[in-house]
Inverse folding.
């Protein structure tokens, strides 16, 4: 999964990506991916769309 790295200031392919739950408005649970940047080892985070 590709995500934006804030430290590198570029889109990178996320390493060790895991889907995690995230609190949304009105108590609704949203989906997100959390992983690590392969170049600088900074934590990367990407919000995903709703389940269909």
């Amino acid at each position: 999964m590709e995500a934006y790295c804030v430290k590198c200031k570029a889109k990178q392919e996320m390493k060790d990506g895991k889907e995690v739950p995230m609190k949304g408005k009105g108590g609704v649970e949203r989906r997100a991916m959390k992983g690590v940047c392969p170049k600088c080892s900074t934590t990367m985070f990407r919000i995903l769309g709703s389940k269909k």
In short: The chain has one domain: 2-47.
